[in-house]
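dumping this here before i forget
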Amino acid sequence: QVQLVESGGGVVEAGGSLRLSCVVSGRNVSDYSMDWFRRAPGKEREWVAQISRSGGVTHYADSVKGRFDISRDVAKNTVYLQMNSLKPEDTAVYYCNAVDQRWYWGQGTQVTVST
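structure:
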């Protein structure tokens, strides 16, 4: 049984920062590559960032490259998404998940960037 719990979202002014957390229960994050996704109102889910199983390789969508940073804390079994220089178009519900595992999605965490 796997549980994904996202947190850390909130309302922030454009240009501000937030750090999202994804706590994984029932599996070890060290065994999986992990993704962050987001879904804005009326839009499809969008892939945002990925960290490799080793933690040594990261990838980002062009829309967030240079602004977001994905990381993990194996001891806490948590994946993070540090979001800087936030833009209104970053407004979305953010979700984490494992690559190619078909785990159930968590509830996500809402990020709202005001203009």
